[in-house]
Specification:
Largest sheet: 3 strands, antiparallel
Structural class: alpha+beta
Distance between the termini: 39 Å
Strand content: 15-25%
Shape: flat
Number of domains: 3
Number of helices: 7
Strand order of the largest sheet: 1-2-3
Mean pLDDT: 81
Low-confidence stretches: none
Radius of gyration: 23 Å
Order of helices and strands: HEEEHHEEHHHH
Number of strands: 5
Length: 177
Amino acid sequence: SAGSLQQKLRELGSGSEVAAEFDIRTDKPILRISRHHHGNVRSSVITQDFVHGADYAALSEAASTFRDLLGEGARIERGEGERRKEEKVTDFRQAMRWLIAQAEHATARQRYKGLGEMNPEQLWETTMDPAVRRLLRVQIDDAIEADRVFTMLMGDEVEPRRLFIEGNALRAANIDV
């Protein structure tokens, strides 16, 4: 039930919310799991078809296999020599959290909101250096559509931009992340 799933997610500390809904398009009940991610609400839907399908069966079997696989005194390790680190773990969730935390400490993230925030060296590295830049011609024949898309992508409203990006993300190729 939605209530038991909500309780389990609370126990796991996920911060997700679960709602039982009725999908009028399919005429079937669904479970919607919503979570906040970087200020946006992300929703996933669990349908009856999924629960009765092969993917769910495979996931359920894998969960059963891994549930009690780690024995007393299990530990996870990374690195070698002086850089070697280890942690005692009791389950795979704990191991994954530790590995992710280790990876986050080992990497540096940098994010630019736009060209106006970059200093000259960063501009050179990302867009100006002829050895690494690519110039592509983009044509939109309809000026009204071009204006609409530009306003959506560069405007103040986040939701239309997010929907556009999510709707077109799988069609994109050769993107610079």
